[in-house]
């Protein structure tokens, strides 16, 4: 459900116009809460906190909520060029290049996407905590979604849990994938013999990948993939299990003759805006290494 509530940001406050009926209601507080719940869809946890901290205020006919309080970044910032695919006061979608991790894991000298996003916030005067909503493997490229405030984080985390955030990928895999393959529904668990790897395992967590064949080359197929679940290495494990490892995916038996990383890219991210609930589709163009790979395969 999307709502047509007009809003303006003023510093840490968002200003809304609920209309005369609510502004002049006999029990204005009660009507305000009902309006925020039923029309605007405020997350319950946030409503409790704002009410408790007296951060919901009327100013004439306008209702003000402190949705954008100053928060520390929570991470050291490192400035680097950042490709922003979508941004507003509630969320940010950025391109993650292959080879970069999202969150620091203690390795010396590594630069992570979270740290670059932190610098982006600093430069733009955003006093927001750096909070990614989902992850991509280090050697997968594609879009990553960030929440800029508590409202966005609560809504987007919930949408992620309810599988309402669509992530669409393309991959170049070995062999000729059958056109009849449309869904892989196989549970994934840890590989006892290899700390980094995952494998299809009857006792694993349920994992569903949707597949569509896009183009065939000699010994290679380009496939579109969609995740219903987000298990670690899900696409890589599923495709390898069916005998179609991703090109360049050394960890899962992929050949590295044509590309030096798994040929996997997040092409599209679709989600409902955390405030307006409007459907947003963000495309992330292919990186040059994949365009080059396709050109080689087509010759």
From TrEMBL:
Instruction: List the EC numbers from the record.
Output: 5.4.99.-
Cite the Pseudouridine synthase RsuA/RluA-like domain residue spans from the record.
92-241
> GO terms for molecular function, please?
catalytic activity, acting on RNA; pseudouridine synthase activity; RNA binding
Keyword Isomerase carried by entry: yes
Which reaction(s) does its UniProt entry say it catalyses? a uridine in RNA = a pseudouridine in RNA
Tell me the SUPFAM superfamilies matching this sequence.
Pseudouridine synthase
Q: Which GO terms describe its biological process?
A: enzyme-directed rRNA pseudouridine synthesis
Spell out the Pfam families in the cross-references. Answer: PseudoU_synth_2
What's the protein called, per UniProt? Answer: Pseudouridine synthase
Keywords of this protein's UniProt record, alphabetized? Isomerase
Residue intervals passing through the bilayer: none
What is this protein for, i.e. what is its function?
A: Responsible for synthesis of pseudouridine from uracil.
Q: Where is the active site?
A: 137
Keyword field contains Isomerase:
yes
Q: What family is this protein classified in?
A: Belongs to the pseudouridine synthase RluA family.
